Amino acid sequence: MKTASRYIAKQIVMAMALATLVLLPLFSFFDLLEQLDDVGKGTYQTRDAFLYVAMLIPRRFIQIVPFIALLGTVGALGKLAINLELVALRVAGLSPARLSIVPVGIGMALILIIAVMEQFIAPQLQQRAVALRATAMDKTAELGKGLGIWTRNEHNILRIGEILPGNIAIDVEIMHFNEQNLLATHTHAKFADNLNDELWRLNNVTVRTFTEKNIALTTASTVEWQSFLKAEDISTLTKPPESLSPVELIRHTEFLQETGQKVDAYLMAIWRKIGNAFMIIAMILLGIPFIFGSVREGLGGKLTLATVIGVGVYLLDQIIANAGLLLQLNLVLTSILPSLILITLTILWLRRIY
């Protein structure tokens, strides 16, 4: 039976590889079309667009891997069913439950690959791509258009207008509050340099000191400021949550919680990554009942129906996740609920077939 399992596994891996060769270039082509619209802005050129899309390939693969798992499972097992190889395997004593273990095992291996990519490959390349694009187009990331980047700790609120390459902060405001939570000083700097992880050099500085009787105004060409932000914290603030690795997400979430800031978007990103693993298994399980049913309609019909169902589940997953974030529902539940529902329904379907 080990030989049969290896044969089935080989067929599924080959089918998943074929699905990847079809889907990944297709999605990358759509990304390229979008980027070509920006060619000519700043110094952004066609080669930059191609480089940007190439750097996003690992992230796109992670995003579409549930569909790859579904199509690979249906394609491989469907081919075996049409060629009556599955019938022969079942006659030889290989039960449907045993047959199902093989694709699920491949799904677990795929999850491990995705975990490595999420931590060590996709975030680094995606962040590099965003930084290169921003540099070429003379743009930087912002928390909100015209609002700049805001963060705080117990006694300080920091606003940065924008971050230029090299972690140069432009239009910096520091509001320091005393023990009574009253504004004590307001510092504005035209720009700031990071001297090290904890020390900033503020340039063209204006400081307003508030007392009960008056407001004192002082100016200086440079002032050194002991920051509560490290350089990596600043760069993290300018990155979209999905581009952060799991370790970066956890560390940054802890930082936001310690400083009393909202963490929902980052917690959602963490649970979405976990939910993606559940979705891979759900899609593989979804593909199995198609094969043990009738094969008269042919492989093409099964692939089409599986794709439609997969797209529907994906859209439902997106809607539930975004609605959960908007309505402040349980992030754990909304992130993995579609996958759990699909897994449950598929297991019930499989039990009826077996």
Question: Could you please describe the fold and organization of this structure?
Answer:
The protein has 354 residues and is α+β, with helices and mostly antiparallel strands. It folds into two domains: 2-133 and 265-353, no CATH class; 142-238, no CATH class. It is built from eleven helices and six strands. It has helices at residues 2-36, 46-55, 57-82, 85-91, 96-120, 122-136, 231-237, 246-258, 264-292, 298-327, 331-353; strands at 149-152, 156-164, 168-177, 183-194, 199-210, 215-226. The protein starts with a helix and ends with a helix. Residues 140-145 have low confidence and may be disordered.
Largest sheet: 6 strands, antiparallel
Question: How far from one another are the termini?
Answer: 19 Å
Number of domains: 2
Strand content: 15-25%
Total number of helices? 11
Helix content: 55-70%
C-alpha geometry: elongated
Oligomeric state of the chains in view: single chain
Low-confidence stretches: 140-145
Order of helices and strands: HHHHHHEEEEEEHHHHH
Mean pLDDT: 85
Subcellular location: Cell membrane
Protein name: Permease
Main location: membrane
Keywords: Cell membrane, Membrane, Transmembrane, Transmembrane helix
In short:
With 354 residues, this protein is of the alpha+beta class. Helix content is 62%, strand content 17%.
